[in-house]
Amino acid sequence: MEEKDLKYKMKVWTKKHKKKAPFHSMVLAALLAVPFFGHQWIDKPDMPQETRPDDVDFRISMVGDMMLGRHVRDAAVRSGEPIGRVFDYVTPYFKESDYVTGNFENPVIDAENPEVEAVMEDFELRNKDIHLYADKGAEEALVDAGFDSVNLANNHMMDYGNLSLEETLKHMEDLDLDLLGIGRALDPAEGMFEEEETLTDAGEIHYFDANGRNIAILGFTDVFVQGYSASEYVGGVLTNAGLGVLQSRIREAKEQADIVMVHTHWGDEYQVGSNDTQETLAYLMTDMGADVIIGHHSHVLEPITRVHIERDPDDPQSEDKTSIVMNSLGNFVFDQGWSRTKDSTLAQLDFLQGGGAELSFIPMQISDTRPRETDGILKPFRDYRIFRTLRKELDDQLWRMEDGRLVIDLKKAGVIEG
């Protein structure tokens, strides 16, 4: 009897809920869609307004790895927008900066040229596992967004060998954009090239004026493929193979400039922390005269560190040397999917009108290949994770939280007086 009652009840329940099944399915589908598409509604960003405080005399904005090819290109095609869409939500920050720089992690290649395409296919078959490139036109997106310089000394700039070098210089060297860490030679001898305009030095120091302060900037990579290092007679990027040139250039820059900034491509991919080589190189560059080290390559954020070298008491001419090291600013424009690779930051070095200098960090999140300031219901969690990583190795006396930013007092840190 009980068995019949149970069967009857199941039959009634099934009949009753069969009518509601389509509705229940729709509700379930909506709930399942949230993790995949919900960021479009939950984290819908607002365009930033008035990003620059009144007391800032000069602002330098710095970002990490930018790759405008592969799935970043695909996302732009799907959207029907130009590749410059990736900077839509950060351009306001750049426009209110006086100088903008970042690491550009791909060559610019005209892949629609049949001759170029044939060379590219040959390299993809025999050279390395991952080959990155951006289409011709990506370089204009950098300029339109407001970049003043980009570091090209990295492990993907020469993915297609000499083709990468020549295509990139062909499309980029005439732009109003300083190219750091790349050239047709390293410390080339005078008269080496027939045409003077082709004399591009991979170790060239670039200078810019910051309202009376002379700033030097150059680029270098510790991560590279053998054979692609620039040398006296060979084009390429400035690598650890040219460490002696890097040392001499930093010394030269320190003699000519008030502040020396070095883009450095180094470390281990996806490791949230610096390695022994990074620490050694940071010490070496600080000893040579570097004040600000802009690190990238790991595709994740790494802690900021302060390097301090005390003066030699036996040398009356020596003095203390201190630098601030951003071991990795993480990705800025990329197509990687792990949550850590989507955590990003926009670093801003501010010289203040009343004297002094501060280094602040805006929490960023990459969504649909585009960076923008963290927003929505997940903002507190994201900000906590980003700031916890960045300040992990800093003395508590050197940093503070202000208006949703991590701020480091560089005067108190002994790096920049202002």
UniProtKB/TrEMBL annotation:
InterPro entries referenced in this protein's UniProt entry, alphabetically: Capsule_synth_CapA, CW_Biosynth-Accessory, Metallo-depent_PP-like
Spans through the membrane: 21-42
Coiled coil: none
Domain (Capsule synthesis protein CapA) ranges: 59-336
Domain of life assignment: Bacteria
Keyword terms, alphabetized: Membrane, Transmembrane, Transmembrane helix
Classification via Pfam families: PGA_cap (PF09587)
Record family assignment: Belongs to the CapA family.
PANTHER family documented for this protein: PGA BIOSYNTHESIS PROTEIN CAPA, POLYGLUTAMINE SYNTHESIS ACCESSORY PROTEIN RV0574C-RELATED
The protein's name: Capsule synthesis protein CapA domain-containing protein
Native source organism of the sequence: Halobacillus litoralis
